[in-house]
Design brief:
Number of strands: 0
Strand content: under 5%
Shape: elongated
Number of helices: 5
Radius of gyration: 19 Å
Distance between the termini: 63 Å
Oligomer: single chain
Number of domains: 1
Largest sheet: none
């Protein structure tokens, strides 16, 4: 299955509609949407943190740090309250990715902040 075909396929809006389409689980549960948004925030923080390390921008570093903390906290809370494991529609995989990438983004933001504050050694 190609990526375009997967993106173009219709998403069902209820469990009964999904069963009629041959989909075993409901694709759009609120838990999955929460985890997906948290993972997207965490991915954004990682990208912004990497850019902040390259360009030494203070606002980029603060943004990466903030978004990383928000993504990691949402991922951790989602993992803590998930009822089932992978494949149950509870967003466990997205929450785990949000936690890992959020921590990475926060780390990159913190490194960019400390790198920008280093005093120059005078001779």
């Amino acid at each position: 299955m190609s990526l375009l075909l997967a993106l173009a396929s219709p998403v069902c809006t209820s469990a009964a509609e999904c069963a009629g389409q041959g989909v075993d689980t409901f694709l759009g549960t609120p838990e999955r949407i929460w985890a997906s948004v948290a993972a997207l925030v965490a991915v954004g923080s990682t990208i912004i943190g990497w850019l902040a390390l390259r360009n030494a921008g203070r606002w980029k570093a603060l943004t990466a740090l903030t978004l990383g903390i928000v993504g990691a906290l949402n991922g951790a809370v989602k993992l803590a309250i998930a009822d089932g494991g992978l494949g149950t529609g509870n967003g466990v995989f997205g929450a785990a990715m949000a936690l890992a990438l959020g921590l990475l983004g926060a780390l990159l933001g913190r490194l960019a902040l400390t790198r920008g504050r280093r005093p120059e050694m005078s001779r």
